[in-house]
Amino acid sequence: MHIIISIFGIAVFIALAWLMSEHKRRVPWKTVAYGLLSQFVFALFILKTKPGQMAFSSMKDGVNRLISFTNAGSEFVFGDLLKSGFSFALVVLPTIIFFSSLFAVLYYLRILQFFVRIFTYLFTKGLGTSGAESLASAANIFMGQTEAPLMVKPYVEKMTRSELMTLMTGGMATVSGGVLAAYVGMGIDAGHLIAASVMSAPAAIVFAKIMVPETDAPITAEVTKIEVEIPDQNVLDAAARGAGEGAALAINVAAMLIAFIAFVAMFNYFLKFAGTSMEQILGYVMQPFAWLMGVPWEEAAKVGTLLGEKTILNEFIAYKHLGEMTASVSPLSSRSAIISTYALCGFANLSSIAIQLGGIGGIAPSRRGEIAALGIKAMIAGTFASFITASIAGILV
Description:
With 397 residues, this protein is mostly helical. It has 17 helices and no strands.
């Protein structure tokens, strides 16, 4: 029964996106079909075949091993403070710094570009997207919503409205490698996070093209290979730059969590006089969406709370609470926890609109107005992309 509901949920999410489409008759249904098929085939391979499960296990072990290396640096800096138990500041934030530095080195060595180009080719040929938007979508699997657009920096100013929507939605629907590692440090399954980030890239294209179909001619329409600048002089320069950017991101994450969690506490203080809480309200509002992904109705309100927190606040808070739910006396079922992991894996929240306006708007100042206008649409499309990824996971788990 849950499988049928997940399939129904996919249809509902696509229908809702179509209702919000700017050009309903121009929706490229071939792109939609190929995007959904590619997601399902990848999920089927990873979750249901022996080679896929071995790869899945290897990815988990690899990420966990890399995270263990972070502890060496943390122990040197923080010493005995680490022995006092889990601390977000001492365990999760250093992970962001190390992985940001690692990805900068991989980028300098052109290892990251190798994998990005594979996905770029698949997106261009299969989904029919332009070279620039395919490259940015592929980069979003590994990089953040402000870093990936830098790979297509020369083209952003001249992108069509549909390409710009794809660029923004890709950033909303996926997470960067450094942040993904931070979620693992919070106890979330590494394998499912990696699978979610890969699956959500084509899903982002699907929903971007449904909501803002292409009506113009992209200048990179037939281009499958775009050369990318290497900003660093050597490996040490790359590692240092990455560490610096990771530190800035870690400070930003810490600041947002302090502010947002404090706001939640303040709102809950006033809401208690009405006999409710922010978590309860979000749970009731998002409960139907959780159910449509295949979460049992009796747990849908709990998962709905997580979905609401991710959208209104950010995914760090939602994943923190997911970790607490799975470790509680009456934990979420394995099915609900897995679906939640996929549904929360993305940057689609209100603060990301401002982040993209600053990041992408800085690359293309003349398009700031259009970026601002597309912000809410991109967030909704990114949310639907994560929901549909979670629905496919719900069909297979």
